[in-house]
Amino acid sequence: MGVHCDCDHGCSSGQGQQPHGRYRTVLLLALLINAGMFVLEIGFGLKANSSALLADALDFLGDAANYGISLWVLAMGIVARARASLLKAVSMATFGIWVVGDAAWGLLTGSIPQATTMGMVGMLALLANLSVAAMLYAWRNGDSNMRSVWLCTRNDAIGNVAVMLAALGVFGTGSGWPDLLVASMMAGLALTAAWQIISHARLELVSA
C-alpha cells in the first residue's frame, strides 16, 4: 500500500505512491552507517574529552534506533506510524535534555577537549550524514514518520558542521566553551525537531 507524498519528490512514475522497497533499503543503509558512526564517535569523544562529540555520538545511536523503528512500522497503517513518530520524538527530547546536563557539567569542571580529534571526527561524521541525507531527500515531505527520519538526519549534518566550528574555537581560544556552546545548540535542535514531529504526529492521529 502506498503512502501519500509530494509527487515532485520521490513518487513512483505517475502513480503517487512511495516505493517502499527502495525506502526500506535506504533506511537499512542509514541504520548501518549511524550504528558504525556511534561506535567510532563515542570512542573518540571519550578520548578527546569533548561534550559535543559525545552528544553527536549519542545522536547517531538515537538515529540508528529511529531507522530501526521506521523499518518496523513502514508497512503498517498511519496510526502505527504516527505513534512510532511520537516515540522517536520523546527519544529526541530526552537526548536534548541529556546534552544540556552534560554541557552544564563541562562548564562546572572547566574541561578542555582535544581540538584536532574533534575536527577530524566531525568531518567524518559530516560526510556520513550528508550521504544519508542525500539518500533520504526524496522522502522529506512524507508522513510524520518519514519526516522525523529526515529531520534527524538534517539536524545531524548541521550538528557536524557545528562540531568542526567548535574544534576551531577550542584550538583558537584554548578553552572549552566553544565545545559546550555547540553541545547546547545541538540540544536545541533536538528539542525543536521533537516538537515539530509531535505536532505532525498528533494531527495524523486526529485525522485518523
Task: Explain what the structure shows.
The chain has 208 residues and is mainly α. It has one domain (20-207): Alpha-lytic protease prodomain-like (Up-down Bundle), CATH 1.20.1510. It has helices spanning 20-48, 51-73, 78-109, 115-136, 144-173, 177-207. Helix 3 runs antiparallel to helix 6 (177-207) and helix 4 (115-136) runs antiparallel to helix 5. The radius of gyration is 18 Å and the shape is elongated. Residues 1-19 have low confidence and may be disordered. One of its GO terms (cellular component) is plasma membrane. It comes from Thiothrix fructosivorans. It is found in: Membrane. GO terms for molecular function: zinc ion transmembrane transporter activity.
Number of helices: 6
User: Fraction of residues in helices?
Assistant: over 70%
Named at the architecture level, the CATH assignment is Up-down Bundle
State the major sheet: none
In the predicted model, the low-confidence regions spanning at least 5 consecutive residues are 1-19
* Overall form: elongated
Which strand-content bin applies to the residues?
under 5%
**Superfamily at the CATH H level?**
Cation efflux protein transmembrane domain
Sequence of secondary-structure elements: HHHHHH
Our count of domains comes out at: 1
What is the β-strand count?
0
Mean pLDDT: 78
User: What gyration radius follows from the Cα positions, in whole Å?
Assistant: 18 Å
Q: What is the CATH class?
A: Mainly Alpha
Distance between the termini: 16 Å
Q: Helix- and strand-based class? A: mainly alpha
CATH topology: Alpha-lytic protease prodomain-like
Transmembrane segments: 26-44, 64-82, 89-108, 120-137, 157-174
Membrane topology: Multi-pass membrane protein
Keywords: Ion transport, Membrane, Plasmid, Transmembrane, Transmembrane helix, Transport, Zinc, Zinc transport
InterPro entries: Cation_efflux_TM, Cation_efflux_TMD_sf, CDF/SLC30A
